[in-house]
Write a structure and sequence with these properties.
With 365 residues, the protein is of the alpha+beta class. The chain has 2 domains: 1-99 and 313-365, no CATH class; 129-294, no CATH class. The protein has helices at residues 2-27, 31-35, 45-49, 51-55, 72-78, 80-99, 107-119, 127-134, 148-157, 209-220, 236-240, 246-249, 314-334, 345-360; strands at residues 160-165, 174-178, 183-188, 229-234, 252-254, 260-262, 275-276, 282-288. Its cofactor is Mn(2+).
């Protein structure tokens, strides 16, 4: 039939266009390197001294940085924009450290305020209601969060009423209902803090303490849109399994040594990737579930990749360029004036990367 022939013609044309576009995106030059070229000052003795370290920056133990991979040469050829951006930022860091060697006079006050919010207890008799009142579409925690210690304390200690599988996503997790009606997500520890996962940048599971680091870093940068998270030790035998749903309970089993293990339900969850307690308890992180009154919109992840070595995600490089533009135009107006008033936008980007890689993302608060 004529319409079948026409459909086949359009399919062939579409495939040819897609292949041509993919080839163009993979072969074009790295525009981001040009954008970041102004970040690099003339090489000094200090930068030359650290040049060899910059070449191996991925091996310094950062949790979320790109690391050397099996296909490193291929990645450098076809993803040079990101690679050059990271090298440019690290090359710029020595100058940042020298220029801002003296801390801001407001830094001590800021840290003191944030610490007081976390450590002060007894402010609120109903921490769940307090967190619900704080939450709005632009912020989950106010700048001065009196009672935050009570909310985090409740997340870490409130009795678990029920537990269920965490459907959706790629990571192992458990949905919890805490006493008082608060919903939360428990993500168990998968690696020791000093353990480095070799292989591709997407290999391995999420770091549980990354949830805690992200929350506190969001407050430090005055971008409080990260859900509240706190570390918690649980007993799989006493706290989770007795109140578990049938679907979750079927994923539990006992090792010969007496350890209780489970593997949950998720995209990559299976018995070979199970998590076990130490014979008594299991470390993890509890993240507060967003209140029902907040409207949510499902958006495509901007850093989504194809996982195919010969196919480049079309939006990846464009969004990297947009990130710099967005940071230079929006962050400059959203950060408190007293926080990083001495930093230029370019310096702020480098400082942000350094903070993420060397402090908050490396250990649990």
């Amino acid at each position: 039939m004529w319409w079948v022939q026409q459909a086949l013609v359009w399919l062939v044309l579409g495939a040819a266009f897609t292949a041509a576009l993919n080839f163009f995106l993979m072969s074009r030059g790295p525009p981001l390197a040009t954008i970041l070229s102004h970040l690099q000052s003339p090489p000094s003795s200090s930068s030359l001294e650290h040049h060899s370290l910059h070449q191996q920056v991925y091996l310094r133990g950062e949790v979320y940085a790109l690391r050397n991979s099996e296909y490193l040469n291929w990645n450098q050829k076809n993803r040079t924009g990101i690679t050059n951006a990271i090298h440019a930022l690290y090359d710029h860091l020595p100058g940042v450290k020298v220029r801002h060697r003296t801390p801001s006079p407001h830094l001590h006050s800021l840290i003191h305020t944030l610490r007081q919010d976390i450590t002060t207890r007894g402010v609120s008799s109903d921490p769940w209601d307090l967190a619900k009142k704080w939450a709005n579409p632009r912020s989950l925690v106010p700048g001065s969060a009196h009672g935050l210690g009570d909310v985090l304390g409740a997340l870490a200690t409130a009795p678990i009423i029920s537990s269920d599988v965490g459907h959706g996503g790629t990571q192992l997790k458990i949905f919890l209902l805490l006493k008082g009606g608060q919903r939360a997500v428990f993500k168990p520890i998968r690696y020791l803090r000093e353990e480095i996962i070799e292989g591709e940048i997407y290999d391995g599971a999420d770091r549980h303490n990354g949830e805690v680091a992200a929350f506190h870093l969001s407050r430090l940068l005055a971008l409080p849109t990260v859900p509240l998270a706190v570390g918690r030790w649980v007993s799989l035998r006493k706290h989770i399994l007795p109140v578990a749903s049938k679907e979750l309970a079927t994923t539990f089993f006992k090792m010969e040594g007496g350890e209780v293990c489970f593997y949950g339900v998720c995209y990559y969850c299976n018995k070979n990737e199970s998590v076990c307690d130490n014979g008594a308890t299991l470390e993890g992180v509890v993240t507060m579930w967003l209140p029902p009154h907040l409207p949510l919109t499902q958006l495509h992840h901007p850093w989504a990749r194809t996982y195919i070595r010969t196919k480049l995600a079309p939006l990846l490089m464009v969004l990297m360029e947009f990130l710099l533009f967005f940071s230079a135009t929006v962050f400059a107006h959203s950060l408190p004036d007293h926080t990083f008033s001495a930093l230029s936008i370019n310096t702020y980007l480098c400082f942000l990367l350094e903070v993420c890689l060397y402090s908050a993302c490396y250990k649990e608060w």
